[in-house]
Amino acid sequence: MEKMGLNELRKAFLDFYVSKEHYKAKSAPLIPEAGDKSLLIINSGMAPLKKYFSGQEIPPAKRMTTCQKCIRTGDIENVGKTSRHGTFFEMLGNFSFGDYFKRESLTWGMEFIRDVLKMPLDRLWATVYLDDDEAFNIWRELGMPEDRIVRLGKEDNFWEIGLGPCGPDSEIFYDRGEEFGCGKHDCRPGCDCDRYVEFWNHVFTQFSKEEDGSYSDLAHPNIDTGMGLERIACIMQGVDSIFDIDTIRYILDGVLDVSGKDYEKEGTETTDVSIRIITDHLRSMVFMIGDGILPSNEGRGYVLRRLIRRAARHGRLIGIKDAFLSALSDRVVTVSGEAYPELVEKQELIKRIISIEEDKFAQTLDQGIDIIGEYIKDMKTNNETVLKGELAFKLYDTYGFPVEVTEEILAEEGFTLDLEGFNANMNLQRETARKGRKTDDEEGWKGASNLDIQQTEFIGYHTLVSDSKVLAVETDGEKTVIYLDESPFYAESGGQVYDTGIMSTDSARAMVISVTKHGGRFAHLLSDVEGEFKTGDLVHAEVDARRRHKIARNHTATHLLHSALRKTLGTHVEQSGSSVNDKVLRFDFTHFEAMTKEEIEAVENLVNNSIEEFLNVSVQETDMAGASKLGAMALFGEKYGDIVRVVSCGDFSVELCGGTHVSNTGEIGAFKILSESGIASGVRRIEAVTASGILEGYNNETERTSALSTILKTTPDQLMQKTENLMASLKQANSELESFKKKSMGDSVSTLIENAEDINGIKLITKRLDGATTDDMRSLSDTIKDKTSSVAMVFAAVTGDKVTFLVSLADDLVEKGLHAGNIVKEVAKVAGGGGGGKANMAQAGAKDISKIDEAFSVAKALIK
Fold first, then answer.
1. What is the pLDDT of residues 786-830, one digit of tens each?
2. Cα–Cα dist 219/63, whole Å
3. What is the pTM of this model?
4. If you write DSSP's letter for every residue of 314-337 in order, what string do you get?
5. CA–CA dist 367, 363 (Å, integer)
């Protein structure tokens, strides 16, 4: 058996199956395709191919081979603690969609093992399903001795998930030798010991499980095999751990260089775990960002954030003080970039995102660890072993401290977390937020779902007027809703607002004020109804053309904006929401930091240039395969039908979209970004206007400028100079006020020290400071500590009806065991507040200023 590198193994496998007339497909991205709601992240080689196995789509070939990127976090707590667990791995596979079956699959498998890998055949074992005589006989014909073919039951050798396609499988094992075994005379594959390593599974999908529990034969059986690349690399390189494989060891050595730590030496067990966690998580974060996943507080973005923060914390545990993950990510690209060129293409972006996330976490880590330390101290005092869920939730909600990190820190100290209580607090917050968003009309009109009428045909792409038949009328005395057989009115969907307009018959007339879609039926909500609309009437429907054109301008502008953002910021930008009406457009997109002024200007210029080029806006109807050939961008999470609309703005933008658009970009007139802001972690929002919206904004700005000029008693052209003069005067006045405040406080320092109360050799100073800021109190305490020792200060800054307490202790008092954080917590409690902090200085807010003297008394008692 020749030693082979991981990259060499990948290539050898794919080349072998290409020689067997298999189509070599690129690894699918880690983000599942739009429409696949079953997975958060791709976790197996078969997952991206489900559409072919299920018959939803026709595969590019009946035989395929892939090396698929995968992420699994189900066993994350074991990563680093064992030699085999990892969150990122690569899965080799060969697949047949109704072409070849068991004999070819096992025969080629044995050929690859024997002729390419050159594995010693006397080390090989196979398992088959209990009743699968066919697979047993094929293995025997291939030269596998009968005593090394093990029959196992459903739990081990039968693949099925619910109803539908399923079947037996055959697994191939490598015997590592007696020294790895349990010593039992019947030790063989299926035993729990480490002697036999399963490295290749051949699944024979030949049955369909029916609702009554029976199995029927599939007309076209399939083959689905999976071989863990890291696992076979361990065997081929003669190592016991995935962390000793050539490519992964290269990353691990980088961690050792940065940390200066030894690995797998006596006494380094805890450090080794951290080193392996960092190494594994580096691989995951690089591949996830390379596939467009950004850190966030939910979904796959949260998985990424959790991995980055977990790796960063373990860096701290082994003594790495500065940010280090971004630089080490280069090592992942070095060993994997040839096989996955997207990593090279996005290398700088990957490093930038990791760096930003690592810096964010550093800001919260120290504070969170201090607070958890206080919690642990309290639990020890109270003989408790479980941290209350609401405390962990406060850490998460207030400080952004991941609950998983809280659990890890607690476990290291021998404590656990009330996870049920944490989740209860989290669910309560979500429910409160949901109720806050709920409106009376959020359910819309539900009647359509109960109506036995045909679906409405939307004809509004080509005309704004129609004579249509009324299919149904619903009224509750206040609201009237009409359903038509065909309608020129756009029903709100895809982020585009509904059309409005007029509907009339010879004897009735009304305004259409909204249109919603229910099961393909358009519900037209009417107002100002004159006369009566009846089922069977022929109505004249007319869309407000001016409003429709404004909406179309803004909608087409969102397409231009999307493309301009990707060209300016990078292809990681994806639409995560939009809202288009006749006045303004709103566009939400994935991006990891605020845009700079220069980036905003660049995007605005790109959009306006494409408007001024008068690009033709064309629409084609095709299937998803045709849309893909046209280069159309699909929106993640959107559900598309068999036939889709591809909207192209020249070559500048090509997207799938069901909305209404202008016929030429020149009709948009102009484009102006009003604001760019963050709405969630990893999600930014742009609000913009077009055409008359820009003119309206200009007119409003002119009115404001004129009004401000009047207030400041100047003219619009002198407004800038007048404002600068006023700011300079204000700055000087503030400077003089600050100097006076410092002098006043400085004069009182000696008085405060002289009047300090002596408590067993400790100078206690308590003082109410009206109008002072936290910085004022900190400055005063620092000045006092410079002039004397053994001093304890408790200040109360009063602003309006609120008070901020500051407790500051001299270093020698801290050394004696006093703790400012503990003191301020009790002091603030008296006045209806709370807080905490470090041993030498801490602060807390409170609401009841009438209790300040009482709070000072508590401080005095605590000092005593």
1. 989 999 999 999 988 899 999 999 999 999 889 999 999 999 999
2. 17
3. 0.65
4. HHHHTT--S--HHHHHHHHHHHHT
5. 8
